[in-house]
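hey so i finally got around to running both of the ones u sent me last week. sorry it took forever, my laptop kept dying halfway thru and i had to restart like 3 times lol. anyway pasting them below in the order u listed, first the sequence line then the structure token line for each. didnt double check formatting much so if smth looks off just lmk and ill redo it

first one:
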Amino acid sequence: MGADTGGLRIAALGPLRAWRGDRPLDTGPAQQRAVLTSLTLRCGQVASADELVRDVWGPEPPASAHAAVRNHISRLRTVLESGSAAPTTLVSVAGGYALHLPDGALDVSRAERLHARAQAARSHGDLEAAVRFLVEAEALWDGTPLTGVPGPYAQRQRDRLTEYRLLLVEARLSLELQLGGHSRVVGELLTLADEHPLREGLRALQMLALYRCGRQADALAGYTEARRHLAAELGVDPGPELERLHQRMLEADPALAPQPGAAAAPPAPGPAAGPDRPPWVPPAQIPPDAPDFTGRREEGRHVRHALAGAVRTDATAPVVCVIHGMGGVGKTALAVHAAHAVREQFPDGQLYADLRGAGRERADPYEVQELFLRSLGVLASNVPGGREERTALYRSRMAGRRLLLLLDNAADTEQVSALLPGTAGSAALVTSRTALTCLPATTCTALEPFSEQEALALLERIAGSERCRQEQRTARDLVRACGMLPLAVRVVGARLAARPRWTLATLAERLSDRSQRLGELEAGSLAVESVFHFGYSSLDEPEARAFRLLAIPEVPDLSPPAAAAVLDCDRREAEALLEALVHHGLLEPGEPGRYRYHDLLRLFARHRTLDTDPAPTRQAALSRIARFHLTGTSSAMRAERPYSRLPDTTDADGSPGAAFTDALHAQEWMLHELPAMLAVAGQILHHPYRPVSAEDTRTLSCLLALLMTFTDFCLPWDTIHQLGHTVLRAADHHGERLATVFGCIAAAVACAQSGHHEEAAALAARADATLDPADRVLAVRTVYTMGVVATVRPGNLGEAIGHFRSAHALACGNGEHGMAAQCSISLARAELALDRPHQALEAARDALARCTTGDNPVGIALARRVVGDALERLGRYEEAVTEYGAALAVCRAHGLHAQRARTLLGLASVLTAVDRPEQARTCAAEAGAALAQLGDATGEAQARAVLDRLPAAGPSAPQGPRGAGATER
């Protein structure tokens, strides 16, 4: 048992001491002893420098900590090494250190071996030998473990070793009672029960010893004392074992009395030991906790608090906690961590099963019942074959106990329900990729991917904090490439830890290739792609097809109608498929009615579609969603401006799957779908090797032209500029005349807004020249576009006015009163830019006269606002206030958010002019907030400028020109 007396020995079960043979060694000052403790109790495992720093100083070490560790290592080598040329005891390994001790050199290891021999002796019925081994193990303690050693690691080990000694003592005393030694141990038990009043196991042994000594009253008083302490300290009653023992004593159960010539039965729960089976031991099946568990502070607290409710005295049902989320998000890690934190509250044991719910080979819950029954002491031959009988026995075995069940990777409610306890006192912790909404859960915790800070913290724990801090920006790039998915971050950390010579940039470069990223996210048994494949393999064919095809459009999220377009099915079928993918943890619900992929799941799905679906199938899916965007935009324009005839000229049939109820509904749809529209257009037009088809050319040219009417949405003009030019090249290739006109209009407006004036003028002129002379509707739009382009060109306001008047005449000739009103509004703005407010007022009033409330609320709001602008310029401030107020009323009635924000901005300016600073401040602040939300940086800056002028004494001067150009509203 002992170590070689000539070799190195270390004692930790008291003051930390070391000897070589019989000669004591100087282990140095406190911090050096803390480093030695950290290396010794890792039993030969490698500890990195970062780990040693944390062990000694905690999470906030001094700047000199790493240097101090190196110095302590150097001095410890001088003390511990036997004098060989190269270190053999305290060695450097892979950027860390390990301490290799001779067999039996550490007293902790000797205690553990003696404990194991005691357990083996007990299992063979040799209780006396078991007691001797336990007495020998206890004798190794020489006071409080690691006395005087500082640091958080030493404290944790001190607590563990103190608890371990109590476990050995409790096991020895239980054996002594079985051997009839109650009178010999009763005094020791009285002292221990007083020192540890919350340990129900010790209290039960004390009560049994007193009872067998004939001190029944003292034994019952021990129960009363235990109940008082538990209520005062924890707010709970004694557990079921202590309750049963107390009741048996009240009933004078003869089985509790010492039996002459035989060992008395212990009071422990579970089946009695027999000659053919060892004593029952409460199961402890929870997998080991991750030593580098990081993050999830709030989620963990929530789960622990819920599990603690299982031991409340007023509980009437078992506690059921569900943790759900996509594969790789860390459900099992959190569940295991929480289970270890509360395991002491479940003294009758902890059961674990992997239900394999993410794949096709799901665990049979009734087979799991059998495994759990055997863990609870039922012989395999006594487990009923029928499901109902087995379930009845299962729940009976669990009744009255405090058990914690960890049911990992559950498939559905049915699988879990058969395994839940039937009575209060126990708890089930369930992980699943779905929320298990039909399960009677006490609490349900949804896990999202890490925040960036949590992801970085985990990367630092695994790869080394110093290494990550040296490349902070690259570390952020790495966790972003992982999509903040904990499993992916763990894989990246593991790969870096295994390759200490790699920089973070080396791995970041490998992950930058999206086509190869999933292949790089693999380390040993950890593989992100494998986790995703489990979920994918459980899908039926329609679900698998939906999972693949819906990942093709590179859009932020999808609505059911958009998904229906991609899948070429009706909305109800699409919504059912979307919900099925959410159920399998392969899609995430976003805002109400929206669904999105995690970045890595989208990559996985796109790999599957490239392997499974032919190119024409993939292209058709993209074409269908582009068509969906066109018909939706056309329908939105009809709802917002029913007077307009522009949708009639486009290749659209009118509906996105559901009619819009009003202009506000249409605007909301446009705001939601606009990023997806532009993304899909870019995906089709900028494909690296596939040419743009004639059908897609027509669809996208019409879509871009219709988008030009929604300039209030602060469109990304550079993107539209690029898309417009690509559409033009495709239109020229296919000889699509209408597509050429639409592409020129979109590109011209985008160029004008981006400051490319000459190019914009050339494109607008080309649109007018390419137009079919018989197309009177588009003729108005091309002339109007030339006016918009001329408006922003320096010195061309006169030309712009001419174009707007021509477009006005054409619109009137077509009977398009709404378009004529729009031309008058733009004309009025051009006149204001030329500082001709009288002409501007005349044009704005013409626009107002051509609009009707029911037919053109946008035109009315715009016209009244421009009337207000002209009146303000003329110094007729009170009339201007009235017009702005009327415009605001229309905006509020019809949900015109962008128009309302800009009207508030104009009202703030005129209120400043009439010396109403507080009202002006309110209007400007509200306008600035709304414009910021709309992404209108220019308007937001104008609102700030108004606010900045307000503190000055006296009214502000009237506003100058606000610009004249606008596309059709």
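and the second one:
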Amino acid sequence: MHLVLAGLWLLVGATSPVEGTVLQTGTPTVATADSVGELRGRITDATTALPVVAATVRIQGTRLGAQVDDNGRYVVTRIPVGNITVTFQRVGYATETRTVSIRADVVTTLDVTLRASAELATVRVQAAAADEREQFRLSPNLGVVNVTRDMFKRVPVIGEPDVLRVVQLLPGVVATNDFTAGYNVRGGESDQNLVLLDGYPIYNPFHLGGLFGTLIDETVGEFELIPGGFPARYGTRLSSVLSVVPRVEERSGIHGAASVSVLASTLSLAGTVRGATSWSIAARRTYADKFVSLVSDNQLPYWFTDVQAHVQHRFANGGLLSATSYVGEDVLAASLAAFGDTTQAGGGALRFDWGNTLIGVAYTQPLRRFVGGDSARLMQRLSRTGFATNLDLGSGSLTLQNRLTDARAWGEITRWRGRRETSVGYEWSSYRVTYDVNSVATSGAPLLARRDAPSAAALYVDHTVRTSRVSARLGLRGETVTGTGWAGLSPRLSLKWFANKDLAFTVGGGATSQWTPALRNEQAPIRIFDFWLVSNRSTPVARAWQQSIGGEKWLSPSRFIRVEAWHKIYSRLPASNLTNDPAVIGDEFIVTTGRSSGLDVLVRRLEREKVSGWIAYSYAVSTRDGPDGRFAPVQDRRHNVNLVSSFRPGGKYTYGARLGIGTGTPFTDVVGQIVRRRYDPITNTFETGALDQQREPIGGTRNGARFPLFQRLDVSVTRESTGRLRWAPYLSIINAYAARNVFTYVFDYTDNPPTRTAFSQFPLLPTVGVGISW
């Protein structure tokens, strides 16, 4: 607790200076064509003469700059004539500054060598601070949160670092319980979040019924959460965009990392080839099944695997070709006889598996001139994403299969001219969705077979204008889905006004659409079986309108506070029908509408040498209206606070803490039970002692009750060694003071008076692990 209080005080306490910035490239200053020149050159290591990859070039006093390619080369165009000062920076190197004269319509060459610096941690911190500052200065959006790899690895972990667990700690985000890595953003359902790995969608990024995320932490460079008002380039979801950027290896040779935790083991390898091609591959497997079989006669017949790879090549003309792939699988396989429950004589096999596949290719090409602009960029992506679930109860006695395949093409061209940025793009997807229910008893005739194969197309335009006092983005997205008879326009608007260089106010709004819902019982606390659909004549396209207004104030170069109020209106939301008839096809869901309103507050101190972290507070009210009236969805947590703090006192140790407090989420209370009496034809009586009674609970008002207050403190400590082979053992303690947060209730009306027993969420849960890198 002392660590949490210290983190809170330091987070909002005294300021300390940041010594440098990193340029956000791609936004040239205004200059006439006859008064500009060009600067180009190569940056190399002073000791090895090898190219310094990913260095940053900045023209002081302007917003001009460039990122060095894998050959160490850079080009900066449209530089006003005259004497300029150029800064060259790279993490791990001392900053170099040069003065050079630029002449009209002349290409000036400037080669620079950089020397390695021992002040590695300080340079890394400055870069993180500069990224957030540039986001504030250049982006019209307000609620965007960037989290670097350095920060998310300091958060106390459950088993191992998990991106989705860190997302749960951000403003506007709610986790309904400890046992799910799923999250709800600003009152939306959990399937309304678009998760992108290197720009490609993943439909169900969870392991073990939602307990863990599928993203391997060693492969993550950074991630960004857009909780609302996202640009027109993003569609297909109603609530948020989570964009995960893969980690790109910049060092020559082959490097790697391995980690071992109580959950799984991970191995990753990465390297570069001739300074132009970088690659990485990582694999992870849980060994809970093997471990249990070694120490016990009991079975834990469950395991999962992940394999992820990324490769990119930069051409001499500046073009960038990249490929990303991912395969993940969860398997639960056992004998029903081992559990004393079988539908076949002699036992049967139980198998439940699910997982994702992804393969995507992208090409980006910078252009010198395009339609009168200063510069432009062309992007094209092709991908194929798949998600499948298979449930086999008793060697074919009953099988359920659900598969979704999304083949997608996404292209965009962006033009910069002065302080204006315009993007025009398209997105096209071909879906294949199947849902089959079969049984060997039917001799091959399916109990249910559903096939949908629609296509979706979208065109969009985004236009951004920046002045010294205003940054505005106006977008429009047009969409249609075959087989639905639906087409719609989704306007987007974000407007930021700067009262001064450290204070800005933002207003925004827009519409979003979604035609791939995941129908699940939101009342159930664990994600066991997600049933993915696609819109058709009977399943409507869901829509949401959202508006927001807020402000952001920078208290120092490393600390800021952000406040944003928001409101969302939902129409045609599909939801699980809790009273559907299994014998009737087509009544599995109902259509609802709804509203969500709230206020998000973020106080953040950016990654510094000693203290970093944030305080996130959210207030939200959500309602849904269905055929049975108005009710609160399970994610309706009214008050939610997360304090995340990291402390590096110097030396080898890093301390982390997270304190979470939230009001209770709603649930449907049980108000009684009825006994299902069974007829005994032998005695012509009901319910003799030879037959068991079947008791059926009677629920009260839907989500009319609430669980008690939630509270949890997590702490961690990591020891990092130095040298070529680096060891980083860590210890995390989840729920450090053993708070008994209610997970669910079990009711027993056979007692007099009836009893209610609470089952808790995570107990005090220590986690140990070690990471090794070279």
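quick thing i noticed on the 2nd:
Confidence is low (pLDDT under 50) at residues 1-33, 118-130, 336-347.
anyway thats it, ttyl
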